[in-house]
Queue: 2 jobs
Job 1
Amino acid sequence: MARADKATAVAELKSEFEGSAAAVLTEYRGLTVAQLKELRTSLGGNAKFAVAKNTLTKIAANEAGLPGLDGLLTGPTAIAFVNGDVVEAAKGLRDFAKANPLLVIKGGVLDGKTLDATEITKLADLESREVLLAKLAGAMKAKQSAAAAMFAALPTQMAQLADALRAKREEAGE
């Protein structure tokens, strides 16, 4: 590669690191071109999967303020730059790695924090954003319903107490 081509590649990688919500580093040794195409298709609009040279990736990551990736950049490396839902992209990579054991998830970076392979797997185990929001809304509604029931119970209990007091006084002849 000519020096100008390397500088251009580093600039592109740096802009991808800075512009993406997360990046997942994988080893793709042994995968065919057709399998890589299938992986790119399965990631859809959530991530861009690119093969990059380790030395250029190290330089771009350091320039982007991500020095923790140096240890992950060994062997043939491909990077999934996540622009959409991070959980969905992690699930796509995990599922593809299960079906094709030659794809190895090395680790990645999320919001400037370096993640190892187990943390990426934990991220993939999360439910989707929509499901989590629905659960949150359900929990909020349940709390509001409980509060409304409690506030409605106070006047009802007061009325029952007054009625019991009235009945007791009538029995006593007052």
Note: The first helix runs from residue 3 to 19.
Job 2
Amino acid sequence: MFKQISIHSVRVLDQDAALDFYVGKLGFEVASDVDMGFMRWLTIALPGDPGRAILLEVPGPPALSPEVATQVRDLVTKGAMGVAAILTTNDCRKTYETLKARGVEFTEEPVVQPYGIDCALRDPFGNHIRITQLAEQPREVDEGDIARWGGSPRND
């Protein structure tokens, strides 16, 4: 049936500002930049993963009515769209320091998690992005993790 995810979208409010952030600061490359008349088809990809792209999509026609586009833009700026992407790295702390030196603002510094080490940031529009260094051997989630995440244990 399916063999891969080739494109997923991240809602942005300004595609040029998105290029500055995703390409200029995070290190993505432009995969396509096409003026389709009614919209700009702008995709980016990681240099090591050109077969998987992110469409930097401005909420609006033809996919959304002007009214719904306004609501979506409001949700994006509030950070209410959930995680836009989880990027993996071999060294989370080094990546954090490199990106911080480039002016990227983080919402979480690197933290040891059951699945590895990760940190979090928001793009200039409010989208959540996590950067993860996967553990060689993930461990079970414990009560300390749940407390740190601000949750409470499930009673299944």
Note: Residues 88 and 132 are 5 Å apart (CA to CA).
